[in-house]
Amino acid sequence: MVTGGINFSIYSAAATDCTLVLFERGAEAPFVEIPFPDEFRVGNVYSMIVFELDYERLEYGYRMSGPWNPEAGHRFNPDIILSDPYAKVIGGRDTWMAPPNWDNVYPYRSRLAFEDFDWEHDHPLETPIEDLIVYEMHVRGFTQHPSSGVRNRGTFSAMRAKIPYLKELGVNCVELLPIYEFDEWEGNRTSPLTGEPLVNYWGYSTVNFFSPKAGYAATGRFGMQVDELKTLIKELHKNGIEVLLDVVFNHTAEGDHRGHTISFRGVDNKTYYMLTPEGYYFNFSGTGNTLNCNHPVVRNMVLDCLRYWAAEYHIDGFRFDLAAILGRAQDGSPLANPPLLESLAYDPILAKCKLIAEAWDAGGLYQVGSFPAYGRWAEWNGKFRDDARQFLKGDENKVGAMMERVTGSPDLYSQRGPTASINFITCHDGFTLYDLTAYNEKHNEANGENNQDGGNDNDSWNCGWEGPTADESINFLRHKQLKNALAMLLVSQGVPMLLMGDEVGRTQKGNNNTYCQDNELNWFNWDDLKTNADLFNFAKSLVHFRRQHPVLRSHLHFRHQDYVGSGYPDVSFHGTRAWQPDSSAGARAFAFMLCGKHAKQGIVQDNILYIAFNMYWDALDFELPGLPEDQDWHVFANTALAAPDDVHAPGTELHLDNQSSFLVGPRSVVILVAK
């Protein structure tokens, strides 16, 4: 906005004419259409100031004229009103799942945002990345279940009411699945099992990159989603919780040549998308199109977008979906030095933001451990997920790999340090942690794709029975395996990421691809807090244990040496005999010890910790390393025991009678503290 008016600007390299289309909010027809005079075009940018508009009631769009020549990459159609790629608010779909008007001449309407929010001195928290404990979550799914007991379920406002829960759990960072504008009605079908609508629930199909989703705001129908989201972020920051956004700069909701023209395709198809020589869409995303991120114009849009979220919403960092695509050239080939990734790494406004890559794409490019990092990028460590799952269920030949994973994957990140590794065992895509212990096979029939969707390489084990069971021994084993997995995650170097609900045994009933399910398969059932209270207490205790012990959060790789004169190396590995690890193919158990005097490379003092993993089906007697004369081993956690003896509150660890050895139960984890 400028004094007394609004400056409307839009880029197109190939359009021949542009018309500004203005609506009163919600009106079926525009009240005026204003062609851009030729003298109002500078280079490839159309720009015009319009005065005396009621900007609070205004909706705007564009008609772009130009060639219709798909073989050459051009798909202009002046009959379609287009959203502004830079719009800060999108109207027209203001309430979640409100039936759309399919005859609407302009369904996704650009609106103005007003930067008058009172942040009350808030700013991004800039928590050191090694100190983060990330909680991946879906805004709607977190509170939509009736058991949440909050007002305005499924919204930013409702999430605010659950901040005390996040604090009790102890996480200090939330990673939000896409919260910018998408269309939940996209691909609308019905479930063959329930007859319920199947929707675009996860939101990985962007309509606009700059605008928060109105359907996630209790005030969205009033156009107040910007303020509601900012209020949530401000409250999270007040409680010491960072906010990461899951961003999807690899494709858009327009799909392939059969999809809807919403914005980018009609503005400048050849600029915004990767196209084959025949004018069709490259599909490295698996969803129909691929954003042309290393075109300078698109690269600038991505930078502008992230700067906007960082500056105007105080976002602490970003996780990039299918980020390997961001390193592809305009012809789809991988680049050795991708300009977009380099620009993001060195951007001055984003300098304190966390940048996290999902280092693969649907076109087969897999870059875990080799993603172009420029000293800035961290990665979702898919190898941690795979190795931990396989070790958990007792696969052979995994001890050596797990030794790398628990020490921050130096085999992958030798030059970047352990904080390059975002460790996870589960995420939104795949089985929940409980389902890893309850299902050998995926059960995705409710998705209406004949169980053909979703991955088949789940590395899961049902503990002897497929699905729910009343067998107490199986249920005890499953809970033990859940605790084992949580322990593996939270005692490993790197940055741990928990999936929403894993701390209370949330299940998706064996569905490992719930992208289309807006129901209890995806919603957090708050009754699980009571049903699985032992899991929550164990998870909570582990999170707080990690936060209290800096030796678990190194920002540099271990040297396997004693460089502070403590008498112990910073890290040492052990087997059933102290100081003698066994990483042979048949081994399924090992232990490691961390010397607290090396914590933060000797800057901070901490306890000595000893962690034993026994994924063998029989108990094993572990010889314990000797301690200084003034210290004894104390038990923090022992997953072989039933609650409440499975874990002790940090600082109240139980003194161990036998200081020379510990019988670690079958498929169990033990964590000891020297005090």
From TrEMBL:
UniProt-listed GO biological process terms: glycogen catabolic process
Cross-referenced InterPro entries, in alphabetical order? Answer: GH, GH13_cat_dom, Glyco_hydro_13_N, Glyco_hydro_b, Glycogen_debranch_GlgX, Ig-like_fold, Ig_E-set, ISOA1-3-like_C
Q: Which SMART domains match?
A: Aamy (SM00642)
Q: Which GO terms describe its molecular function?
A: amylo-alpha-1,6-glucosidase activity
Iron among keywords = no
Keyword hit for Acetylation: no
Q: Which CDD domains match?
A: AmyAc_Glg_debranch (cd11326), E_set_GDE_N (cd11234)
What are the entry keywords?
Answer: Glycosidase, Hydrolase, Transit peptide
Stretches assigned to the Glycosyl hydrolase family 13 catalytic domain: 136-546
Q: Which family does it belong to?
A: Belongs to the glycosyl hydrolase 13 family.
- Provide the protein name: Glycogen debranching protein GlgX
